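new request in #modeling-help
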Amino acid sequence: VSDGAWLTAMLAVEAALARACAAVGLIADEEARAIAAACRRADFDVDELGRAAAEGGNPVIPLVALLRGSLPAPAAGHVHLGATSQDILDTAAVLVTRAAVDVVLQDAERAADAAAALADTHRDTAMIGRTLLQQALPITFGLKAAGWMSAIDDATLRVRASAAELPVALGGPVGTLAGYGGRGLQVRGALARELGLAEPLLSWHTLRAPLAGVAGALALMCGALGKAARDVTLLAQSEVAEVHEGGRPGHGGSSSMAHKRNPVAAVAVVACAQRVPALAATLHATMVAEHERAAGAWHAEWEPLSQLLRLSGSAAAWAAQMLSELVVDGERMGVTLADAVARNELSEDLGETASLIEHALGRHREQREQRERGS
Amino acid sequence: VSDGAWLTAMLAVEAALARACAAVGLIADEEARAIAAACRRADFDVDELGRAAAEGGNPVIPLVALLRGSLPAPAAGHVHLGATSQDILDTAAVLVTRAAVDVVLQDAERAADAAAALADTHRDTAMIGRTLLQQALPITFGLKAAGWMSAIDDATLRVRASAAELPVALGGPVGTLAGYGGRGLQVRGALARELGLAEPLLSWHTLRAPLAGVAGALALMCGALGKAARDVTLLAQSEVAEVHEGGRPGHGGSSSMAHKRNPVAAVAVVACAQRVPALAATLHATMVAEHERAAGAWHAEWEPLSQLLRLSGSAAAWAAQMLSELVVDGERMGVTLADAVARNELSEDLGETASLIEHALGRHREQREQRERGS
Amino acid sequence: VSDGAWLTAMLAVEAALARACAAVGLIADEEARAIAAACRRADFDVDELGRAAAEGGNPVIPLVALLRGSLPAPAAGHVHLGATSQDILDTAAVLVTRAAVDVVLQDAERAADAAAALADTHRDTAMIGRTLLQQALPITFGLKAAGWMSAIDDATLRVRASAAELPVALGGPVGTLAGYGGRGLQVRGALARELGLAEPLLSWHTLRAPLAGVAGALALMCGALGKAARDVTLLAQSEVAEVHEGGRPGHGGSSSMAHKRNPVAAVAVVACAQRVPALAATLHATMVAEHERAAGAWHAEWEPLSQLLRLSGSAAAWAAQMLSELVVDGERMGVTLADAVARNELSEDLGETASLIEHALGRHREQREQRERGS
Amino acid sequence: VSDGAWLTAMLAVEAALARACAAVGLIADEEARAIAAACRRADFDVDELGRAAAEGGNPVIPLVALLRGSLPAPAAGHVHLGATSQDILDTAAVLVTRAAVDVVLQDAERAADAAAALADTHRDTAMIGRTLLQQALPITFGLKAAGWMSAIDDATLRVRASAAELPVALGGPVGTLAGYGGRGLQVRGALARELGLAEPLLSWHTLRAPLAGVAGALALMCGALGKAARDVTLLAQSEVAEVHEGGRPGHGGSSSMAHKRNPVAAVAVVACAQRVPALAATLHATMVAEHERAAGAWHAEWEPLSQLLRLSGSAAAWAAQMLSELVVDGERMGVTLADAVARNELSEDLGETASLIEHALGRHREQREQRERGS
């Protein structure tokens, strides 16, 4: 989600647009090839483009000028054919989002697999359950881990579904496809196929549910990851000490206290999860967009979207590390539980934890198999 | 979503729980009938319950005490069997949400139908398209209305889907179903059937995606409604005057300026849409919940959820009124367009607006038919 | 901050406006008295006004109609003289806010006093300090309590200052004071004196810093209260058990677990603190208001402001109870500290905690004395 | 607010800490000089530090290791004396914030001066005032510009005041100043003097009002700037055309529509203003911090703070450009007003706009003089 990734994506869209125009006969194949070649070899300075972008309000304007400058006529004149800046930027946003989501999902699935392994291993590891941060009644650590797993699994489904629906953007300045001599819908279809994206019903320059929907799904995922991480920070407290983060020596060190072993990964996940809801709110709020192009709301989307993707990626990667390397002290759990049971004369009944874990693991395995078949 | 609606829902859950326990043989049928009757005739004072709730932290504790007090043994002892307060409150939240969403969806669908009628009527009503609040190139009003319709349609699908997934909550104090002597999964299944709700994989006391998911979907809906309303406020400006809100005399009057005709419905929708993203963010943030019951995050959900539902309902109802009664001045649109075309030597090409509208209306009709078949 | 409080405040503003107009000679004294009497005896139905408000977009329009209907000419015609709805509603909002803030501050000051007493009593009660939820190095409980106190003290100063700056609103429909025949500034001054409010430089119908500033100050206060409450929930954990909430028998009871003693007050404060930042964000966002009256942003302020005030009041009251009744187990703190020191070979150096506490208590006493002198 | 600026600030804090320790006699002057020299010549790779930071959870840990590695004993051992990572990072955050706020304020004051010039020039330029986006009654453009000016002026005062209160952070690992052998308060005082910062009452590792207060003030400023920009976008609409953005040829160009002149600066300000409230909310929410160092909330502050500062700076710079170069079409205003007056039989009374503008300009001049005397 770096500036460079956005630039690469914009160039990919301009190249694909040229190929799509050629595919429906609007420009010659050799022009499309020349434009695509110019996009490939383009070596523009991201910072300079950023400055030029300020004048016109977006980076596509100077980008197109540079591309045209690097090509002979008539190819030069056929760069960006019929498109508007937002077509390119929105489609680039979709490409960047899709690529970032792929990485996020891989890490989230690793995290869910790690939680599944914990649930499987610890299905009979009894511990005290806690409500309102007070010891309550017995559960198993497997049940807790199955909850983490199941919440992450659900979230990955939603993120995957919302990313899969992301459509190509092509409408021209006001969304009418007026620049294509009646072949605009064909060009849009060809562009979608070129880039492997869905086709929208209408131009979505100011109908922003596709990106806001991904933002909401990522917020759900970060909530699920944050829940697991919050539990780990609490279980890793010195006074509780039922888990600690594994990992290399040095992990979790302190600049001033040699004895400490901080739950660094869990803290990082919690920090990401604390920032995501506000960014998703920004993307929900910017849906209220004026007429055929928003006067501010669209520009306000770019960075929050990038940050959401980056924070989700960071949260998923840290969560995968946290859960894969988690060291569980089943013995300590047992001692604490026995003590709580004795002190409060609690029932030791574990209810139907075994069945609950089994069902949840079954669903996890199904979901993984479907995913593997799908890919 | 009033306090009374929450109370009614909590009583409905306690009654259904008793029936579910009877269905699996844990309590006698007559006890279940007695408990259900007590729930029906319960005439508790909402404010008093609120005060009592403060002591224990939630309203279920005093509610159960009152119910038990109104029943003879052994039924008294079988009220709330095996459940924890959060089971009752979460299931009540689901019932309240489902009922509120039904109303929201009806109004949103009326709004979409009204937008569809505008798109249909005005598919050839040419007007100037506007980008960054500047006159740009020609569109039709039908294309704009089709965009509103399509965005609302998409949002209703998401809201409907997220509400349909809402599961029953039953897990007991720490989610193990320990209070049912091995028949907890059966009770949970029976309770789900009693209430027409989905069954969850695990207890979701601290896995909050179901409600946060509805919140995200409602935020998308309010964004879509807000976009239409923002456009109406802009088109209704005195200097633009391409639409105005219809309705009874007195609608949109001013306390100090007799000549004014304020776009009251559109302003109300915009105001709702401005408040919703922050409330959805609160529900995303409270997903980070501690252990088996959150120390604050759960309590922070109740009012934002109610407010989200109420604001969504208000936005949908106002949007339906706004779009149903919208007065469109096609002549004025034509004059403004002709002037813009002449002044800026614009192309009058409307591109493929006709096909775009046709496709969008086709999808709208399909969605409506599926809905009607489904219900 | 109930609907009734808003109605009372609106009537108080209309009455004061009449007196102000009389004071500068625009209307007769007896008319002002008649209007004020009509406002006092007004017994309007809040719900009915709410419904009528929907037609015109705000409740002042029907309110003025009802007042005029209850008076003979010429007084009837001099109700609401020169004012616009927003003048009345904004000034009412200021009155409601000021009254609510008074209550909030009293409770927040009780909370700070209670924290000061804890800091004073426990200045030498050594305990383990904790970073990233890990045992770190020794502190005293007095230092921790002094931190809570100091943060609440700072916040009360900010809230008090922002509320004291709240200005009267009077500008007429577009803020020019055009309805007063050249005596508008005099009327505004008289109105400010009548209500004990500051005078603004300009009409602030769409310059919303006054209310947004209070919202930001309340968010700081709730952050400070939430920090103390979060610490209490953590210290009250069964495994830590260094504090617990006192209070009457029954406080913190559980519907399903008789042995539990939940930190109900702390949980309530945390829940309030989790909701406030999003509401403050709404009030910051609605500052972007159109022209001379906003098309939605203004309407979006009312409920979030009421909710902010109510949540702040709730958080302050619960925090005062939590801190006043907090039971501190100094012995347990000592045992845990000794154990941590021994296990990790920690220094027992308490640094300059005594001086830090002394300075902080000194500032607290100064602030209290200034407040008492001021009132 | 770049990563480099943060690194520079952290090194400045470590150098100042060494000098402060020398000033109170804890280390030798030559050691302090050696450490300061090492900080000056340090040429660490920001990205590498970022990676190393991940292991320990913050960048100070590897930074101190590198500094120690570049120095001989005993200076090496006296780097970071008695401090904890958060002392360094928080003080660095304060330095970065103070420097960024200086730039923000300069641009905001330029914006206010430009608005003042508009108010002065156009105090008699009559135009139609607009409420709910409907033509209402006459105002002057000077009154509108005076409102922009006054709102920005108020906000600069708040931002300046909140930045001036920013304290140095020094407390050691748990805030007790335990590492200084009883001279910790002296070291803290010397450090504050070295860096020109305020001294706090207590260690504020988990008492976060100082930074959250700046965030709130910046949100008020961006709200004020956003209001002006929103008005400009509306006044610049093709159908209104009462102002347009000036500036170099090419400013506001479109990639697809040669005739367009987009209000690029205003749109940029609006976009910044839309993102700021959510970021401020994150900084309010992270005030709820655990014990002596937060497990996540602290880490969640860094980027939102940087982004808030950058967005505020961007908004202020764009607003200054927008207002300095604004082209006002007084003739068009007059024509539109005359037309509205005639059509709706409006009063042409401008009320007390002249006095209102005069008072506001007087206050602006006073504030500027105080500022100039102060600096």
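bot summary: Residues 119 and 362 of chain A are 12 Å apart (CA to CA).
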